[in-house]
């Protein structure tokens, strides 16, 4: 592998810092988080969830988990962030094919490392292991934490995120995920409780 090819790979992934999570714009968020922002916290959540599961006697491969978490959004460096409403018009298989081709394109010059990264990304996409499912749960949990944070600073009209079952579809990986979600919902209630109290004064 040439050093220049490695630099090119890292540089390309760096574009995630410039790509906004476009779905937030549909909800009036003026300066939404980037895909890189989201990816970092997904990796952090995956690490914490993994450690919590290990403490509860669940066997998983933490190195594999973290590698997969770091790689899970890399195709968006090539194709951008496709917002949820677009899936009404864009077939899932088309998106999956585009993402796979993007990952292949980015990893092709990294020789055996590239093959390993493609394999890990594919495992995540196909929910092919417990580690992949934990990252899927972390991905959705991070989304909901971000919703809460936007509501906390005054954004409204985000209720649909809380009632959309799609945003909880991977929470069955372990009860701890639903415990965390319940704790988040309790924190959210405090936001609106304070608003009501201020309005009554």
What can be said about this structure in brief?
The chain is mainly α. It has helices spanning 3-13, 35-55, 62-71, 76-79, 92-107, 111-125, 130-152, 159-163, 175-200.
Descriptive account of the structure:
The protein is 65% helix and 0% strand. With 201 residues, it is an all-alpha fold. The chain has one domain: Hypothetical protein af1432. The termini are far apart. The mean pLDDT is 94.
Secondary structure topology:
Elements (H helix, E strand, L loop, with lengths): L2 H11 L21 H21 L6 H10 L4 H4 L12 H16 L3 H15 L4 H23 L6 H5 L11 H26 L1
Helix pairs in contact: 2-3, 2-7, 3-6, 3-7, 5-6, 7-9
Attribute tags:
9 helices; Hypothetical protein af1432; mainly alpha; 201 residues
Principal-axis shape equals globular
Give the beta-strand count.
0
What is the terminal-to-terminal distance? 67 Å
SSE arrangement, N to C: HHHHHHHHH
Percent of residues in β-strands: under 5%
CATH topology: Hypothetical protein af1432
* Quaternary status: single chain
| The number of domains | 1
Name of the CATH superfamily: Hypothetical protein af1432
* The level-1 CATH class: Mainly Alpha
Structural class: mainly alpha
Largest sheet: none
Radius of gyration: 18 Å
- Helical stretch tally: 9
Low-confidence residue ranges: none
CATH architecture: Orthogonal Bundle
| Nearest-integer average pLDDT | 94
Estimate percent helicity: 55-70%
């Amino acid at each position: 592998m040439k050093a220049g090819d490695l630099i090119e790979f890292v540089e390309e992934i760096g574009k995630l810092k410039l790509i906004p999570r476009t779905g937030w714009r549909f909800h009036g968020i003026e300066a939404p988080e980037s895909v890189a922002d989201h990816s970092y916290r997904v990796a952090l959540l995956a690490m914490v969830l993994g450690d919590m599961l290990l403490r509860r006697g669940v066997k998983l491969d933490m190195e594999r988990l973290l590698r997969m978490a770091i790689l899970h959004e890399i195709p968006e460096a090539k194709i951008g962030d496709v917002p949820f409403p677009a899936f009404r018009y864009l077939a899932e298989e088309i998106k999956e094919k585009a993402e796979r081709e993007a990952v292949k394109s980015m990893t092709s010059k990294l020789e055996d490392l590239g093959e390993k990264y493609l394999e890990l990304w594919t495992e995540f996409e196909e929910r092919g292991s417990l580690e992949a499912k934990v990252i899927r749960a972390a991905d959705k949990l991070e989304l909901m934490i971000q919703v809460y944070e936007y509501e906390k600073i005054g954004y409204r009209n985000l209720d649909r995120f809380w009632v959309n079952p799609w945003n909880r579809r991977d929470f069955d990986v372990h009860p701890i995920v639903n415990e965390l979600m319940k704790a988040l919902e309790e924190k959210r209630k405090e936001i609106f409780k304070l608003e009501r109290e201020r309005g009554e004064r």
